[in-house]
Amino acid sequence: MIAFINDLYRRLTIENGLLLWLLMALFIGASLYLARDFKLDASADSLVLEGDQDLRYYRGVRARYGSDDFLFVTYTPREDLFSDAVLADLKALRDELAALERVKAVTSLLDVPLIESPPITFSDLSQELRTLEAGNVDREMARNELRTSPLYSELLLSRDGTTTALKVDLKRDERYISLLEARERLRELELRRPLEGDEAAELERVSREFREHNTRLQAQMQEDIARVRAILDGHRGAAEIHLGGVPMISADMVDFVDRDIQVFGAGVGLLLILLLAFFFKQPRWILVPMLVCAAVVIAMVGFIGLMDWRVTVVSSNFISLLLVITLSLTVHLIVRHQEYHAESDAPDQRRMLADTMRTKFAPSVYTSLTTMVAFGSFVVSDIRPVIDFGWMMVVGVALAFMMAFLLFPMILSRLRPGEAVLRRHDPTAAITHSLASLIQRHSTGTLLLYGLLLALGVAGITRLSVENRFIDYFKESTEISKGMLLIDRQLGGTTPLDVVLEPNKDFLDYLREEARYAEQQGGGAPPFGDEQESGLSGDSYWFNVFELETVGRVHNYLDQLPETGKVLSLATTMRMLTRLNQDQPLDNLTLAVMHKRLPQEVKASLFDPYLAADGNQVRFSIRVIDSDVNLQRDALLKKIRADLVDELGLEPEQVKLSGMLVLYNNVLQSLFGSQILTLVVVFLAISLMLFLLFRSLSLALIGIVPTVVAAGLILGLMGWLGIPLDIMTITIAAITIGIGVDNTIHYIHRMRDEIGRDSDYWTAVRRSHASVGRAIYYTSITVTLGFSILVLSNFIPSIHFGLLTGFAMIVALVANLTLLPLLLVRFRPFGRGG
Questions:
Q1: pTM attached to this predicted model
Q2: Residues 588, 432: contact at Cβ < 8 Å?
Q3: CATH architecture of structural domain 1-42+250-418+431-462+666-827
Q4: Gap between the Cα atoms of 378 and 685, Å rounded
Q5: Domain spans of the chain?
Q6: pLDDT, tens digit, for every residue of 611-668?
Q7: How many CB atoms lie within 10 A of CB 660?
Q8: Which of 124, 353, 373, 686 has the largest CB neighbor count within 10 A?
Q9: What is the Cα–Cα distance from 168 to 399, expressed in whole angstroms?
Q10: HSE-up of 549 (CA within 13 Å, CB side)?
């Protein structure tokens, strides 16, 4: 059976490949057609944990109190902010933004109600709203009020009075919300029990429609952001302007991903051409590998379009990875082919190709499988972009193997052998020969050195952290970084955090008793009073004098934390109402009257964002200073939760934390677990594959050592340099093992053949270094330089990923050419002979 398959493969690829050429052309054509469905995704929902319960609660809080779908425009004029010219320009900017189709409202210092410019009473506010735009206020008093107001200071105006902000609220997309709710409802049902046929079909339909609608929504958002920036550009002559907000970050991330894919692909492709020209110095050895690489990339992009997988910032480097992996496979084939060529006096192209594909098939199969296992280990992560990246690369490596073993012989079988390009004495041969001589002379010292390096790596690993500042993800030259830094320093912080307080247990028991009584009475009046008579303050848990004192204490506690910037809550509202009441204390009756008689637009600003409609839930809106170098998110969240219970006397069940800070922290805290789990999976899987390949436990254990050392050293280096784990860097160790062990397999496979010739281990080492050692050197240098292209990214984790993975590949190269042969000589797993 094996002989039949070998014969069929040789006839289809080497002897008569017309049918295969036709099939390949159809396959590439179909892939190009499917590539039109290739899509990007950089939405906030693409960077959260799978099945995160906090995500569900966060969406509920957004639905009740308002979403994060707003843009933040900072405006620092070159003249006095309250001069006629600047206010006129600010008004024009606001009106232009408000005229955009998808903008719901724009809030600026021009149109917010002022109560101390000059001071007014509650009755005055009920009759007339005083604003800067209306012209019925004193500007200097307005400047002072906006700078010192508990509501407006560091929200609309910086404390120094030089920078203001415009909040651009975007219209809520009801179709998106309905599809999201339908999908989440069916997913939750699926967790409880297997879905029936129509339910499963409904989930598939809703998920597909949600993805399609989200794609359209992202494209629309990018257009909207472009229009906003065009408007802002028209006003930059009068002021320094920056744009911020979650929608803007998502839109820019799509641009980053799109740019990275193009730059990485083009950069790596150009680099590979230069390296091939340097290593092999013949046009065919540039053209053939690049044709194979191009076919793999086209096929993979088409497959991603077919499967409707979305490329995120995590997977934006998949093209560059595929290129270096494909080239690595192809270079091993070239080197082996050229070895046969150099040994033959009358080279027969078809014979050399047949021998090359036969001898490299088994090690290439296992190197591809080990690389697939490394990327496949990402599916055990809880982070969706990392999971998708793993699946993409598993399929991509399989395509790379298939294309290399089809196109390489198909193309070369149509060409004459040409001249041999490998010489016995060249710089590469000198390097590999020197390494072989070095470890033979200093074997004990080499082992001691690796032991010391491994100890340093382990010590560094203990220093690893997952704390990341989101602002550090972007270069300082980007709009995201500039805007976040300005907002952090002058306008109260960037990262949203919500503290939500529920009623205590006794009140919840009261509500349940009230509901039971109403049900027994057939919907009659409840036993404990009537909301219409007592007003909101008499019927709610929080909107009364007693519990508002608790709200005030919680607000003051949150406000004094060094990590927090602007804090807004019902306590802020009470301070504003107290000023309206001529600084007199408010009783329950006054509260009820004020709540009832306030103008609706004022109530929407003072109550709706912080108090539930029934008064039984309050929300504290906090913005955290993300640029604070001492920020420890997890410690901060734990401290807030503990202090509200232990120091302020709330029940644990009353305290809920939500917001982007919580979701982002959940992702960060999962990184340690994901890192350990992926490493365990990849270590066990690759060890098993090495055992199956070589039928030797000792060879399996020896084979895994060099790449484990490389992965340990790179993680240790991250610890010593203070580089935290993030959604990109957690993949480095597994990728290092998966790609690094490829060279290990090629070396052991060749070493076994060389031992079979004369049973002399050191001689076998020198011959292996002179042959497969050169291929390992070529591929490792190619992979390293390929990863270095990632430094061109605007996304700092991608830069760290490229540099650290490239360095890990160099360490793996040196370990495979020094530590691996030393272990093979010391433990002699091949016995006396091959």
A1: 0.81
A2: no
A3: Up-down Bundle (1.20)
A4: 13
A5: 1-42+250-418+431-462+666-827, 54-249, 491-657
A6: 998 889 999 999 999 988 889 999 999 999 999 999 999 999 999 999 989 988 988 8
A7: 19
A8: 686
A9: 46
A10: 7
